[in-house]
Amino acid sequence: MTFTTANLCDAHSNENHFQIVEPLFMPYGANTNFSGQITTLKTFEDNVLVKTVLEEKVQDRVLVIDGGGSHRCALIDYPLATLAIENGWQGIIVYGCIRDSTLINKLPIGIRALHTHPLKSHKKDHGDRDLLISFAGVNFKKDNFLYADMDGIIVSETMLS
Question: pTM of the full predicted structure?
């Protein structure tokens, strides 16, 4: 599907079933446009569950991670981004940091994160999956639709075209 978030906003502005994410995120990965149904994950400075979720084979899905906005370590690195691609993930939104950004920027995936950080995360296996999570002015729900490009990120209850 070819889209721009600006065109989606124009076409659906009277429908009130989408939200626009506050412009807090930096783009990473070679795919500047990506979309898919949402899988949510809430974890803090621990990426064990992130790896478990990214190991699942999916089609047209985006992983949205509420990392609590931490700037103390990275939740996504090059091996996890590669794993995501191998298993069909279209993109990842991280309310936190990534590392290995130079390598990730060459990969065919779209990632948005607050910043980069060189320290890897802890391995305590804490977190929750498929809960309603909220950050950047938006409620992210499992199976809602996410659209991202260089202008922004839109979340909708229904598929937009």
Answer: 0.96
